[in-house]
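G., the chain you wanted modeled:
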Amino acid sequence: MKTTTATLVLALGLVACGKPGDEAAKTDQEVSAFTELPSAPIAKKVPHKMSIHGHERVDNYYWMRDDERKAPEVIAHLEAENAYTDSVMKHTKKLQETLFQEMTGRLEKDKSTVPVFHNGYWYYTRYLPEKEYAIHARRKGNLDAAEEVMLDVNELAEGSGYFSVGRLAVSPSNQLLAYPEDNIGRRVYTIRFKDLKTGELLPDKLENASPVAVWANDNQTVFYINKDRQTLLGYQVMRHKLGTPQSEDVVVYEERDKAFYTWISKSRDGELINIHHSSTTTSGQSILSADSPLGEFSALYPREENHEYSALKLGNEFYILTNWQAENFRLMKVAMEDASDKSKWFEVIPHDNAILLEEFTLFDRHLTVIERKAGQTGLRIINLKDNKDLKVGFNDPVYQLSLSTNPSPDSDRVRVSYSSLTTPRSIYEAELSSGELDLLKQDKIPGGFDPEHYQSEGILITTRDGAKVPVSLVYRKDQFRKDGSNPLLQYAYGSYGSTVDPWFRSSVISLLDRGFVFAIAHIRGGQKLGRAWYEDGKMFNKKNTFTDFIDVTKGLTKLKYGAPDKIFASGGSAGGLLMGAVVNMAPELYRGVTAAVPFVDVVTTMLDESIPLTVNEYDEWGNPNSKDSYEYMLSYSPYDQIKAQDYPNMLVTTGLHDSQVQYFEPMKWVAKLRELKTDKNQLLFNVNMEAGHGGSSGRFRRYHETALQYAFYLDLIGQSTIATAEE
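Predicted structure as tokens:
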């Protein structure tokens, strides 16, 4: 076993520069700035052999897996890791607190959402100053009516280290509220019911559920999703009648294919209850009249392998977004009674190789679509009577645009959510006949934020195989010099076709004000450049994701956006897999790397069907039970590819109750890195013992984790105590 020795380190920024000859005047306290740190926790090795396809692997840290999360030896090691991280970062505590105060100081203390009108009420959420959680409220008829507080999450969360509320559902009668709650972070919810007239809780409690409930129109029947207790996969749609025990609930649909996720919703007109079936490559939808909750669900259109579709109802027709003979999707419509006959689907928006149709919603007289061309999204409005359409654009170089909440089909306006790297989240309404925009609300950023101080850019960087990767950048104008001297933080995700558009992150201002450039690399594996961009970054093309990120780093330094010795990288979850692959492949490029809840033990996890969400993702990563997939996945799996070499400074974070990436993956990864790495760089592991995949709950305290990450970067380049540009 390789051990580490205590290292003498200089706490950057804590020793002031003196004049020549001042050495003799230094006190013992000043000299002690050279501090001996404790040794990092060294994990025991217990060989665990695994064999498949004639190949044997030995995992010395497999013992760290404890599904109950109670094993004393495991908990003790995690606590030792936290203590070690606290010790190493102790000299940055003041900086962390400064960063935390900066970031939370940019949050609107009494923030509220734009009210949404539905079924006779205006619904909104608001916050009280200094409170962590939202208050969900409504007003009847008009916004001058008396406020009715439906749910004060602060009261529910009192005394809990973690608390989360899922999607709220008000009954058609407007009298009853169903709300899911999770006080562990495992994403397993209990659905509670509240009488909104009396304020009393009903005795009904639906446990082991997904975070959504749907009411039938009788105001007595509720549909919800039951989770598999081992895999945490929502697989059974249940029917519950108020006033009866959960043990009497009826299974109305069971998903037997573990590759599929299951979700439920209600049509905007309140007439249908939908079950959504979704795997990586195939999707479908089943429907039931909300007036007949005792009936049986039927497929809107039968599931077909590699066919993805979703449907919205308008009157007696379905509008269907489908990839049938359309890689970037097209929009069809069909009479409800003919939906199962694909030959009767009529094309509304044809397929376009250059345009990805992302989402749509319907109004009585108009259709609205968010479409993506050349990496950028735009709003398109089509008149359903004469098929005339118009496009609505925005002025930022790069930005994020999506449909907001639009519950009323009879509206003559559509709401969209807009944001950019320099523009806080904004809710606009576009007039459907003209496209004219009206700004309803823009997030306020206290603390003196001025967007004129910052500049965003969108550039393309050519990779080793000729692909041109879009990169979104932002920096503070008076802090940036395009001479290769600025520190740079590069972020990416790159999986599941998830596109990380450039939206406003108020926390990043703390880095920009200290001279950082922030870059988002829109690498393959997302859908920034359409569906083909995703396909070229999954399965046997997965390594393109990693090489894209590396080549973007090289390109940004070559273009002088960042100093070669001050480049940092960050990613979480599947983006943590990206970080793990990148530090194995090109560790010399990065001064420091943060990996949040990283998916790093790819092969072992994907071979174990008892681990949550494994089977669902065979079409994303491959099924290692097949030899070719096993060998390809093994060739990049971060945990398996650790070797004796120098690694950058690293900060790894996880949550003990993570249901997406189990805590033991990063725990094992850190232990093996400590065993094999040949450098003396920092390797820190921070474990949130009360949270899951999303980190701390609440709107303020989650920023403690961000402050730790930023302090990690700043400390490594000697900026522990340097003032911001504003100071």
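Residues 1-34 have pLDDT under 50 and may be disordered.

Shout if anything looks off.
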